[in-house]
Task: structure prediction
Amino acid sequence: MEFKAKKIILKDGTECVLRSPNRNDAAKMIEYLKMTSGETHFMTRYPEEITLTVDQEVKILGDHLNSDTDLMIAAFINDDLAGNAAISCSNNLIKLKHRASFGISIKEKYWNLGIGNILINEILNQSKLMGYEQVELGVFSDNYKAQAIYKKHGFEEWGTIKNSFKLKDGTYVDEILMGKIL
Result:
């Protein structure tokens, strides 16, 4: 599904454009994924695990644009990809298609400007319009800042997966499962 371009003003007065990324953003998206995956251990993948080609990313972005169940919204500041959020149908089976899975990331240099809150609001609004009844996510148990933001937006803790993530140094981190009934 396509999210039409929308200009917003961030906390510091900077203009930001929210829109669905398209094929022209594919290379930028790959670099963004590598960068955000290297800035914190809170991402599912390490930078070296992002091995998408531009053609593969073009297909992924096109699939999102042409989908009735998936949506991606990117935040651009002066043409720099600052943040990205997406929802996708958990499963298109009758018993499960009321559920959407949610993910979000923001480049570190753009933290604390309100981009995350804005993207979450937009995703939740779009989720309702798309007919979803609940939105679910997983968050690292030591990512307290993200958990607080999600709770601020009405997400509740629904469970924990012990040792869900094993970091390169051999330590384990639990995953907190959160959800919001729309």
User: Anything to note?
Assistant: The radius of gyration is 16 Å. The longest strand covers residues 156-166.
